[in-house]
């Protein structure tokens, strides 16, 4: 009897750890013959742009929750506000209880531990088929309907250069170091940071970093 061939599932991977990206890609390629990794990235902004592009969007996005740039929660919500097309599966190295309810609220379809291969594959198959993985999660259509019409997180109001400045600031770099990394003058670096703080609707760099990384909630 011929073996049933599953339809192709396309996948995007987001994690700021290159080793985690390699682990996920290997696990998927070895355990999911019906899957194909379209792309992988360490940038939340890049992942959002790809997921919202009909030519590059995967069936399923796997996103880490804790990242240096934008948090996985911001990525989830930004995508889900705008589309139900991409299913989102959160992955984390922390206890699932830390992020499960927040990931569900942000529009993800499930959450799995990052280091265990079999549950990741089972979860991908479940959400790719239009279902959910874990308690309290909604399908992509249900989550999009709930979030549709809400404002995008303020993190996505920033220009690419302002975002770059905030990424460096969130790594603990001072203004002169940021200027050096961006190859601009110190006054220009200050301008990028000032604009970013204003657009984020906060009053200090510390508050901006907390909002940028997802450590603080966007209460708008």
Automatic annotation (TrEMBL):
UniProt keyword annotations, A-Z: DNA-binding, Phosphoprotein
Residue ranges of every copy of the HTH luxR-type domain listed in the record: 151-220
UniProt KW Plastid keyword: no
Gene Ontology MF terms in the entry: DNA binding
Database matches in CDD domains: LuxR_C_like
GO process annotations (BP): phosphorelay signal transduction system; regulation of DNA-templated transcription
SMART domains on file: HTH_LUXR, REC
Pfam families to which the protein is assigned, alphabetical: GerE, Response_reg
Xref: InterPro entries: CheY-like_superfamily, Sig_transdc_resp-reg_C-effctor, Sig_transdc_resp-reg_receiver, Tscrpt_reg_LuxR_C, WalR-like
4-aspartylphosphate, modified sites: 64
Top-rank taxon, per record: Bacteria
Keyword Ribonucleoprotein applies: no
Record domain Response regulatory: where: 10-129
Name recorded for this polypeptide: Two component transcriptional regulator, LuxR family
UniProt source species: Bifidobacterium reuteri DSM 23975
């Amino acid at each position: 009897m011929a073996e049933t061939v599953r339809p192709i599932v396309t996948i995007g991977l987001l994690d700021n750890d290159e080793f985690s990206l390699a682990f996920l890609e290997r696990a998927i390629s070895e355990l999911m013959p019906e899957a194909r990794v379209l792309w992988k990235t360490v940038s939340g902004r890049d992942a959002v742009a790809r997921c919202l592009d009909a030519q590059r969007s995967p069936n399923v996005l796997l996103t880490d929750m804790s990242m240096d740039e934008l948090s996985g929660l911001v990525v989830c919500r930004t995508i889900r506000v705008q589309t139900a097309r991409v299913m989102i599966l959160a992955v984390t190295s922390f206890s699932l209880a830390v992020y499960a309810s927040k990931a569900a609220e942000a529009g993800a379809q499930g959450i799995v531990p990052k280091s265990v291969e079999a549950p990741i594959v089972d979860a991908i198959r479940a959400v790719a088929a239009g279902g959910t993985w874990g308690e309290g999660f909604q399908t992509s259509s249900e989550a999009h309907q709930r979030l549709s019409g809400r404002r995008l997180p303020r993190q996505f109001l920033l220009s690419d250069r302002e975002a770059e400045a905030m990424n460096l600031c969130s790594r603990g770099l001072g203004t002169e170091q940021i200027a050096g990394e961006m190859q601009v003058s110190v006054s220009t670096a200050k301008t990028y940071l000032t604009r970013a703080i204003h657009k984020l609707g906060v009053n200090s760099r510390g508050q901006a970093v907390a909002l940028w990384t997802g450590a603080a909630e966007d209460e708008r």
